[in-house]
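Troubleshooting log. The previous run stalled partway through. Resubmitting the same two chains, unchanged.
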Amino acid sequence: MKNRCLLVFMLLTLPALPQADRTCHAAKGKGVCHAGQCDFLLAAPVKSFDSGDSNRDLHMLQVTRGAQFPIVSVRLRLPEANLASPTLDCDLEVQFAGNTAHYSHVPFTQIVEGTVHHITGTVPSTLTDFKIDPPSFFTVPIKNEIPVRVDAIWHPL
Amino acid sequence: MRMKIDLKIMRPASGVAALLFVLAHTVALSAQVASFTLPDAPTPNLLAFADGQQSPTQATPPATSSSSPQTPSKTGAPPSLGDLGLSPEQIQGNAQAQALLDKRTHMLKVHQRLGLLTTIPLATTLFASAGAPCNHNCGPSAGADFHAALGSVSVGMYAATAYYAIRAPRIPGTEKKGAIRWHEALIWIHGPGFILTPILGAMALSQQDNGQKVHGIAAAHSAVAVTTFAAYGASIVAVSWPIHVKFWEHQ
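Second attempt completed without errors. Output:
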């Protein structure tokens, strides 16, 4: 994996909050490989998640304390030898809403076509992982689960 | 008798006065825009991956200025947010902007609850209207008084509901998208409707109490009221509709 440099288009989808899928096209990230290990950092501004309804997005921003903690970031480390594997077993460290949650053995699938890597997977996150009070509508709270779907296409530079 | 008529007119008039008080603040408050801005989202949507040994032909990231709090990581070190090209403004939180969002959400929650609660006297007023008009031998009637009292409560609650929506802080740089546009557009129907309906109702009540059949512009009271109620209901449905249910979009 010498001299590898890839560009990635990444699509993050954050459902729920409240009961609507929100898609982010503004994610940025970088991976650095050294001594057989690759460290990755992915980040996206919380306000860039878009459901198509500006009113609900502002409520999402408030609930997730998106103005106080404007970035959601994901860190992971992979063995360099596994980068072309069809399945990636990742240990993730996610920072969101001022809190950090760890997810072990999150599976991602990868399709490699030439130099293009298409990676998909879901981070099984919940509101309680980040100490977010679930918004409620007349005392009925929304679902606790906020799985983050990741859809990334990697292109070499 | 004279005093009784005055009181009847005063009842809906008090609701209208409350509504006008709120609307009088609309012009001034609609211009109220909070000075706190949320951090900007970065425009690129590209992620970079590189190993520790950089290729001579590889584009190197731009040097970070000395003013940046996060400098690019050294070779082999885990990447930092500064490496991603995020500016300090994008990374740093803004407690004042968060407080503004908190205030906005709080006020709109009150607006939502009051708005839903307003449907109760509003619907009851509509049902009570069955006993309000006279067919013959017009004069003071308990049915008309009850209908007028319920209408006054509805208008008062509507005014309080509007107050919380108008006073909720605006978030600058937010482009309105989705159902909120319908919700706000319908104000142009039910807003004037909530002013006209009690005025026409007071006129109708006055005519009826004087032994006359309702005539002239006051005869439009029920039509205006029903239109107002329909627009108000549609406004609630617009922002309560499950966002993922789009029956107008075919697979």
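Takeaways: Chain B touches chain A through 62 residues (CB under 8 Å). The radius of gyration of chain B is 28 Å.
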